Amino acid sequence: MEFKKNPKLELKKNSALYFLIGLTAILLFAYVALEWKTFYKTPELVQNLETPDGIDEILPPVLINLPPPPPPKIIAPPVIEIIADDDETKVETFIDSDDSNQDTEIMDVEDVVFVAPPIEDEVIFIKVEDPPVFPGCENENTKEGKRACFQEMMQKHIRKNFRYPEMAQEMRLQGRVSIMFTIQKDGSIDEVRMRGPHETLEKEAARIISKLPKMTPGKQRGNAVKVPFSIPIVFKLQ
């Protein structure tokens, strides 16, 4: 025996209609809730303009008379006293003039001693008159040529003596070491200072600088001076 559904008892028959009715009811409820306004009764403010009990009239304001301002002080002009030329009791005051006296003799230029400014004990590399000469750059005649040759010979010296420390290779250390040293008045290298990422790299850079040859010192107005110089050495693993 086969069972069949009664079409009158089908629940999904009017589901779309019920859905629309419910949606309309929700929208209407939301609209009413948003547009609903409530008014509260507030007591009226009453301003009592009548005269308070026990006071028949309003008292007039109290006026305080301030004292008059003092009269302005009148400063009398100075009295100019005329003194007779033959009056010996009065002493005349003389005012010195700041103007130059034409009777004063002018010093000769030959008598003036010119003092030269003192020579600095240390002059930086780019400002020294005669830069230090690296061995092998003696044939350069110009200052610019000597400076360029100095830079080139420094690079050659670093490449020739460069040696990557084994410990730095094992630790994978690399970076830039900034070195500053001073070329003394006798051409020797001294006052070596350095800064780098690791002490191992700094020691290798110091070793390279320690092998620099003795140079011709720099000169300022013909006198030997100290010349500081700085150069970076880059350690980079391949």
TrEMBL record:
Localization (cell): Cell inner membrane
Positions of the TonB C-terminal domain: 149-238
A Gene Ontology term for the protein's cellular component: outer membrane-bounded periplasmic space
GO biological-process terms attached to the record: protein transport; siderophore transport; transmembrane transport
Keywords: Cell inner membrane, Cell membrane, Membrane, Protein transport, Transmembrane, Transmembrane helix, Transport
Topology class, membrane: Single-pass membrane protein
Domain of life: Bacteria
UniProt-listed InterPro entries: TonB, TonB-dependent_transducer, TonB/TolA_C, TonB_C
A molecular function GO annotation: energy transducer activity
TM regions (residue ranges): 16-34
Pfam families: TonB_C (PF03544)
Similarity comment text for this entry: Belongs to the TonB family.
Protein name per its UniProtKB record: Protein TonB
